[in-house]
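pls ignore typos typing on phone
magnesium ion + seq
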Amino acid sequence: MEVDRETIDEEESMESVKTRPRRLLEDETVRLTRSGIRLSDFDVRGTLGTGTFGKVLLVRHRDSQPGTQNFYAMKVLRKTDIVRLRQVEHVNAERFILSRVHHPFVVDLFATFQDSLNVYMLMSYVPGGELFTHLRRAKRFTPDVTRFYLATIILALKYLHSFNIIYRDLKPENLLLDSRGYLRLTDFGFAKIVDDRTWTLCGTPEYLAPEIIQSDGHGKAADWWACGVLCYEMLVGYPPFFDETPYGIYEKILTGHIHWPRNIDRLSKDLIRAFLNPDRSKRLGNMIGGPQDVLDHPWFRGVDWDALERREINAPIIPRTSSIEDTRHFLHLPLPPADEIPGLTGEGRNSTFEQQFDPISYQFLEF
Ligand SMILES: Nc1ncnc2c1ncn2[C@@H]1O[C@H](COP(=O)(O)OP(=O)(O)O)[C@@H](O)[C@H]1O
Ligand SMILES: [Mg+2]
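k done
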């Protein structure tokens, strides 16, 4: 379950000093590598996921060369919903950020489109399913398995944070296994470039840092908090703060009491506690040493970070897929009705549909 309520105007003046990013995202080249393709070049093959704001479809490029990848994941967001749910800025930030970042543990964005109904983001299809599915199936992961996944996420966050990008929606549903069993971070719907702090309440209740709940202004530290929640959830099988209602969850997060099952070892507790420090200035990842402190934590002893980033380590779970089109690792959701995606299914194609007058297209200029 996701909440997203705009609270305070994000562009409010900020009291504390802005931190300059190590590198500027504006300087990165836009890496939309598949040029000259159109929405009407694709057939819809299945539904991979549905979220709060849209859906993700498995699509096939009809006349691609043999031997080239022709399956993609296409995120489809209905423009009127984006506007109604006040997500215009978030969707544009998702497109802006994903088209410029490039990392082995982040999903690749190839192209974006819009027509009068929807905006579309064409991504690499990550066939192994959500880490969520694999975790629920296994009930919990051993520390070694957890370390592999967490280490890749730490590298992805370190990379994103170097641009002052905060991700803000870390959770096993947004982590996908690729064919080699490596994670790919997807869903940049809440990602934002923040030089200091921002005040939008967004994310998923179980993963929210106390400062987000308290509307205290949040930044990169909130991602490190979420790492603590993720680490606990992988080792234990459920998140550290849970309740039937978001309100109950928030209460538990603010109280800060963590129940430790007996099987969890001392060093793992130490790491999780270091991430789940309510005091941001003492939270692992957010102190003077930055992300390097995380890499140097004894829990990660023995991890060859460079080899990991070069994807030279064997992953713990290799998802089985019979063909490139195999969707067994995803929920089997029905295809969306054709009239929701006419530009992908027929009537809308080759017609004037794509050029139809659209009073809100100006809100999505980059697409
Ligand atoms: N590139 C991808 N390959 C395969 N499945 C994907 C991909 N991107 C997203 N999905 C699936 O679709 C779901 C919803 O996509 P997401 O971007 O997280 O949307 P939302 O913002 O609605 O949560 C994901 O949780 C995942 O299961
Ligand atoms: Mg998501």
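The longest helix spans residues 143-161. Residues 1-16 have pLDDT under 50 and may be disordered. more later
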